[in-house]
Amino acid sequence: MRYLSRSKTDRQAMLDAIGCGSVDDLFADVPKQAFVDGKVDLPDHAGELEVERDLTALAGQNMSAADAPFFLGAGCYHHHIPSTVDYIIQRSEYLTAYTPYQPEIAQGTLTAIFEFQTYIALLTGQDIANASLYDGATAMTEAALMAQRVTKRRNVLLANDIHPEYVDVLTSYMKNYDDVTVRGQDDALDETVACVIVQSPDFFGCPAKHDAWRKKCDEVGALLVVVVTEILSLGLLSAPVQADIVCGEAQSIGLPMSFGGPHLGFFATSQKYLRQIPGRLCGETVDQDGKRSFVLTLNTREQHIRREKATSNICTNQGLCALAFTVHMSLLGEDGFKQLARLNHEAACRFVDAVAAIDGVEVLNEHFFNEVTLQLPVPSKDIVKEMAAQGVIAGLAADGNKLVCAVTEMVTDRDIEVFCNTLQSLIKG
Amino acid sequence: MGAELHMMQDAKDNQMEDSQTEDSQTGPVLNNGTRALRYEEQLLWEREFHDTPGVDLPEPQGMPLRTGDALREDVGLPQVSEPEVLRHFVRLSTLNYSIDHGFFPLGSCTMKHNPRVNEKLARLPGFAHIHPMQEESTVQGALELMYRLQHYLAELTALPGVCLTPAAGAHGELAGMMTIRRAHEAAGENETRKIVLIPDSAHGTNPATAVICGYKVRTIPTKETGRLTQAAFEEALYKTDPDGKDVAGMMVTNPNTCGLFESDIVGIADALHAAGGYFYCDGANFNALVGKVRPGDFGVDVMHINLHKTFSTPHGGGGPGSGPICVTEALEPYLPIPVVEQDINGAYFLAREKSRPETLGKLRGFVGQFGMHVRALAYMLSHGADGLKEVSENAVLNANYILSQLKDDYHVPYDGPCMHECMVTDKLQKGETKDDDVTTLDIAKALVEYGYHPMTTYFPLVLPGTMLIEPTETETKGTLDKFITVMMHIASEVRAGNRDQFHHYPQSAPRRRLDEVKAARHPVLRWSSDQA
User: Fold this and answer.
1) Between residues A178 and A401, which one has the greater pLDDT?
2) Looking at this predicted complex, what is its ipTM?
3) What's the CATH code, domain A333-428?
């Protein structure tokens, strides 16, 4: 057991010092019925090589984006991650640190969080941002909860095609309250609505216009929440400055898809809602010598002080994921970030031109960033399955024979060719 | 320009910039105040904007935009080269304390060794570069991994229903309490059961979670003995209804946050169950029990597991965590989705609404913090059934050893034995006047000065000045002895009247004590050009 640091001699010496005969005596308060009878159904311990063999075999059964033309997005994107990012986040000082509760010996983490908050505020065109949340779906739910606190109203209106998983998460949370209705885009926007939620680009890849919604929200006093599931789009599209809250998923910058997590929820808003914002915040101050320092602040919103009066039950952020994002953003810089966004858009443009030439395939988007929706003449579920069998991850099948495809900088012209040829032959079938 | 010349130029620039300020003791502030390996690092926005970024991307072709939007205006991002980025984050890292630096006895947080093989495995392309919405036939290995993790967690807790999706401990709490709420709803009792019982020693997230689920919190006092007593529990249970029918459940951490096992737990769980309530156990302290004691066998109905504590996925400076929940067979239908199941042909699939119509729904996008699932499974396999039992035994032995050595120097409010952590207070370090007190805060900052991360301070809230010390199983006796010596030294200095020094620590850390009031009164949460 290579991680245990106790020798038999030490064990006896410690028991003697404590003054008890055996380790089991230390468990005297535990009822007999709760002890494991014999052994639990786990294998006995294995060495590093055996563990590697076991899990490498499991990894080998999956079709990775590294091995296939890959067009699946829908809130989780395959982007390139510079080597520096992973090197930094594997440094012990970041990887094995705790939440920076002792700021005198945690300025590394704290400074990086402060930079993260600055990046998110700038990208979203908002005043302030928090230190991150679990993921995009929970960030959107936290936005709705915050809007309910701010407006003292209960209902939530979903204004366009929002990621179905995000809607599911919001709906599950709201079921806890008897007085909340989640309304759809055809329902009334009236003075019971706490917030209007708009996703941009929407689930089918179409960038949203915010001015009209801003006006409608102002008429009834609702907050406008803009959800962004592909944060790289903010390098090309205008910042959603019209919004009261901008939140979503930042996995695209610095994090692998990793089968859905860990990812990186972000949350930005106006200065005036400072005390209603959920999650951790890092702020600037000075130490006793007057040196600039950073510290977790405004903790009075949080559950360890407020307990049942807290603004949220969240007591963590996605620390290391936020660091990965911050390192990647630092490498990209102003020019690189915009350039990467542009490259994604151009790859998507080439993809659109290529698939539009296939008989029977229609591209539904007039406008898009790096994700588009195709109308197929055959069931898209079958196409996704059959293309996977031929080694192409084609996208996400949606109702009505639609196929949602993401095209990032990872997609080569050759990948597009393979996609088109495979799709064409299946349609002709 | 040669590298050397370049450095000289940099030095000259910095000197010009810095010479406007002077430190009265050390003269002009050179290089932002950096001395030897103690770095004073500027923010990225405070550096010169390089004309090329730290990436080398192909040139876009200049195709016309099809976004329906104008090209975004300037974002205001800083721009530096790759070596500058690397230096920035390496220098910042030197300001952090971590487990790999040394002993980290942070109570309730289980700061144990993080094996690096787990990092390596989570980065295998077959795990890192797969998408959660891929065809299930193309991700059978990932689903099998989750299935095995579910099975092992069920085995270790004696709670057969497992859902891996919650993203952190507090999220697991929420998932657990919503499972309970859903069960009451299915039984038609949601309207009448509105109260959740929580001891005053609980983590703050417990009451916050109960409220988010729409419940009212009733607090059970535990101050007298540090434990829940049958009498105090029953008083709370029957307070407003003679049969306790208005109680939805209780949220109890066991071992509790004082580091003690709740010795009345079986009787308490029986009374709760008789009243129709469910027992939610906060799994933060599972490291005391893993492989040896099974919570399902002392009456627990729902429990979350912190994979980042008990199963050693790294804390990462505050996340990502992972908080799977384990429930009884009776509660399993109400679990959040998705859950991994196996079909009759042996293929793994994600069970959703269709096969689990009673589910409370989704609580997070996709399947959860999968990268943490990989690490946790690797940790379990490395220890196995035999090793996990030794984990809890050694964790408990280490904590009791520390308690046995410190009990004459520090006030121990509740009789042991303790479990995997021990609680003391600063009562013996009180002075004749308030100014003379050496408080828990002072002791924590003295530990920083002596090269340790402090224990958890001022938690639990049951008594003033609590210190919660959790050594974990991965520390040697030698490490514990050194820490004990330092703790004894602090106590003996206080006894000798050398109190004042403790009000000024730390002196040698990258920062001295911070003005936290200023941070909260005048919040500055981001860099902006007008503050520069």
Assistant:
1) A401
2) 0.97
3) 3.90.1150.10
